[in-house]
Amino acid sequence: MGRPNFQNLHVYGLSERLADAIWEIVSGWDPFPRETVGKQLVKAADSVGANIAEGSARGTYQDNRRFIRIARGSLTEVQHWLRRAYKRKLLPDRDIEPLKATIDELAPRLNAYLNSIGTDKVGGG
User: Fold this and answer.
1) Entry pTM
2) 29: left (phi over 0), alpha (psi -120 to 50) or beta
């Protein structure tokens, strides 16, 4: 049995990379920041990939597109929580660049994937 299609998408792999990096960072925080900002940040990051996966399992292109739009919203939420974490000195400068690089690649890939859904093109998102 082959892997479901979403697991083969580059955009999904990027979402996993982002979520895993955020998990690693947040898991080292003290309890109060981890339970407040950290939980929200991890949930938002996990939501990006979860919505890519769920959308791919939907029966219509319209449903899939809706879930990719939700994934884009979750990515924007991740950016919000990262800004809060940085402002509150929870993120050291060394953690910023790798996260920014992943987000800077993921955001346009989500848009490209959204635009490809329902077309005759076969893309890797």
Assistant:
1) 0.91
2) beta
